[in-house]
Amino acid sequence: MLKISLGFAAFGLLFLAACHSKPDKVAAFIPGTYVHAAKGEYSQAEDTLVITLVSGEAYHIQRRAGFRPIREGKLLPKRWKVQSLNGNYDPQQQVLFETTNGRVFSFDPERGVLLVNSAVYRKL
Asked: Over the range 83-94, which residues count as b (16 or more CB within 10 Å of their CB) and which as e?
């Protein structure tokens, strides 16, 4: 009887160990500050995202965007826009869904980047 009980206990421990998920490298990478800069014929922009974990899979995203129009070859004064956004992390797809505008943030910890649409943000 003792051998059977020990067998069930060992099986239970092995089952629990097999079910325990590996650490999520993407979720561990998400919190931080990300920057992106772009320049075109009519403007230049700098974008900063500060992502913080609120709890569980909920995140707060602060976006600070600076924008300088170019008119007749001259840079005009910088305009600022600050947004406070929320996001939810999906561990199955390993992406962060931004809830206000519906954007999907994907992360590449190996390259140290965040991808939003066609923009590539570098993590500081």
From this structure: eebebebeeeeb
Closest among 74, 85, 91, 102 to 47, alpha carbons compared: 85
* 113 occurs within a structural domain: yes
Query: Which amino acid belongs to residue 111?
Result: R
Q: Which domain holds residue 53?
A: 24-123
| Chain CA centroid to CA 81, Å | 20
What are the pLDDT digits (tens) for 17-65?
444 455 799 999 999 999 999 999 999 999 999 999 999 999 999 999 9
Tokens at 6, concatenated: 């020990």
Count of structural domains within the chain: 1
Give the CATH number, domain containing residue 45.
Answer: 2.40.128
Asked whether residue 40 is assigned to any structural domain, the reply reads: yes
Rounded Cα gap, residues 39 and 45, in angstroms: 6
